[in-house]
Each structure stands twice: as structure tokens, then as C-alpha cells.
Amino acid sequence: MAMTRRLLLWLFLAAATGTASAQTEAADGPPEVSYADLSLHLPRYDGKTIRAHGKFHYLQNTAPVFEMLMGDHPVSVFISQLPPESQQVVRGLRPFSDTPLVVTGVPRYGPEHGNDIFIMASKIDVEGSSAHYSYDPKNGIVTCPEITRFSQRYLNSPATVQGRFDFRSPSENVFTIWRGTDSMEVDFGRLPNDVQTTLLQEPNFSNRVVTVKGVVRPSPLRQGQYRIEASSVEFTAPPADAAPAETKPGQPPSATYADLLAKPAAYAGKKVLMRGSYECPATAPHAFQIRVGPDTIEVIGDKLPVSVQNRLHSLTPFTEVALRVTGTVRAYSDSGTRYYLVADKVEFLE
Fold it and tell me: Is 155 exposed, middle or buried (0-12, 13-18, 19+ CB in 10 A)?
């Protein structure tokens, strides 16, 4: 009980001193303090606002506090005094993502939290977020794995996402789009009524290409997952039929993912040649994803030469390195309308 009273007193003092300390800060802002400074000289910073760099570790489920690593040392960070939008940013970070942070706040000593030091945060900056720099792919469209992997870049920021219409929630104005092995929810409840009506009439699993513009938000149901709060949703008409690409004698026909969906019987189990750009590694060993127009397709590369596998592993995700893949079209066992390639050959077109 005494420990609880002491914690409440600390929280009260932190709230009282947070505003006062801001009035005594130097013109260039609060001092940047290391963990060694805090652990050895905490009385020096008592009641004063400081800045601390660290990496996001995980958010507690039962209290408005997350653990941050300063080097190898854990520090508890209370977020109850942050504005709601800042708390939302923190709650949207993936556990154990090591997202770099700068925490501004008042440090306290709090051993009952399992950590010797905690900080009552008044501001949190996500280093590398969209507020600090912009990221603009060639076609202005980001993919689901980009948002998941670089959530600090996109969270609470506008983005354009493209994928194929999957299914609609029966209980809310939300539908899911898929692209490659990834999917993302789209909240369309703020769109005009006529657009909502169109989406409510769209058949589930129609696989039509849809372009969504909106703001990336944390999923309210799944920690570490994201959804798009849509400001516009448009179904993209399929491109006009182009003349088939020339193929050399003995070379398999060229195909896009749209071709596989349109004529599954003509391609399933057959060899094709597919051109795209490197996107990111996939979950399976020696597997990766390539971007092909509005689609993404998984490529299984365990039959490729080790030298090619190593080169693929060395690629930086989402750098759009051009590739030409020759392989066999396979359907996923849990979905007869989604496909992947088992590669026999990968050519780098740089």
C-alpha cells in the first residue's frame, strides 16, 4: 500500500512539475540525457524536463505505459499526459519493433515497475516518421507490407494503397483488400452515401482492383495491424489488352497476375515468364515478393542457384530492382483464386 501511495505521489508531482519545467527550459530545448546520466545523477534532473533517445519495446496492456530500451537498459514511459493523437501513435507501434523514439518528459525513480527509472512523457517523436521525411515510390502507391514494416513512416499519415477486393465485414463498413500474401482493412464509413452503396453491393471475393486513398490508423482490434480510414475508393478498370510480348523459341509465355486470374486454366501448373520489381522477403525460406502492376506475387526461390539466392537476400526491400522470373504457376491450397510462382530462373534487369 505504501508503494502505491508513493507512486501516486510521484505521478502527482510529475504532473505538477511538467508544466513548470517547460518554463525554465533553455532556448534550445531540454537537455539530451543518456541512461548513465539518469542512473548516476537522477537527483540532478528531478523535476526537470529532459530528452531521451531509445527504442520501442512493448506496450503494457493494463496501464498507459510502455517499455523503452535505452541501449540495453529498460525504462518505463508513461503516456497518460500525452494528447490522444500521440497516444494513438504509440499504441499503433508494433511490439518489439525497435522503432527509434525521442521521449521528452520528466524522469522519476520507480522500482515497483520492474525498472529503476520511468519517464512521465510530455512529447514523443518517432524518428524517421513522415513528419521528418517523405517517402514517395515511383507510382505514389504503397503496399500493405510497406506500411507494416515502416509503420512509423505512415501511421496517422495519408497514403494510397492498391489491391484486390476481398470481402466485406458483416457488422461494420469495413472491407479487406489483398495483395500478394498480405491484406489490409479499409474503413469506408466516412465516404459519401453513393460510394458506400456501391461498396456494399460489391460481391465478396470479386478480386477487382481497387485504389484506396486515406489515412493509416492502428487497427482497433489487432495490435500491430493497420487499416486505412478511406477518403476515396475507386475501382480501377483493367488495362486494355496489349499485344503479347515477343517470346524466344522455347521460352514460356509472358503473363501478369491479372492474366492468371482471368484465365486460370490456361496458366495453373504451367511455366510463365513474369516481369516485376523486387518488393520484400516473404515468410517461407528463400521466398520473396515482386510487384507486378497493381499486384504482388510471392515467388518461391528454393530451387535457384545459391549465388542468385544470396543476391536476392542482399536486396533492400522496396527498392524496385527490376526482375524477370521464369517459373511454374501454383495455386495456394487454401484459395483456388490466388497464385504464386515456383521459380526456375531469376534475371536481374538493372
Answer: buried
